[in-house]
Amino acid sequence: MEVKATYKYARISPKKARDVAREIQGLPVSAAVETLAFTPKKAAQLISKTLNSAIANAEHNHELIADDLIVKEAVVGEGPTFKRFKPRARGSAGSILKRTSHIFITLAPNVDA
User: Fold this and answer.
1) How many contiguous H segments (helices) and E segments (strands) does the chain have?
2) Domain of 25?
3) Is the pTM of this model over 0.85?
4) What are phi and psi of 55, to 5 degrees?
5) What is the mean pLDDT of residues 58-78?
6) What CATH number does the domain containing 70 carry?
7) What backbone torsions phi and psi does residue 100 show, to the nearest 5 degrees?
């Protein structure tokens, strides 16, 4: 049985968050939590929050044991982009794109255990 958790509209660029998400894919849950705890990036904190939510969903809703789960999928999708403008020289304007992300984490039971 797969367990999912979603964090939508995270204020981080998907490109930056995907690097961290790739690190935990396929790891056991305990190793993924440790990896995120010692990763010095903003994305690690956001993904850790989503992973803890998925673990809580598994324990509470499906009565699964957290130690028997692996991170099957950690996907970071693109959310809406906030468009802002900054004044530039000679009356022109430069655009600023404030990107957002949707973080999806799927846990599955470990078939080796």
Assistant:
1) 3, 5
2) 3-109
3) yes
4) -65, -45
5) 94
6) 3.90.470.10
7) -125, 165
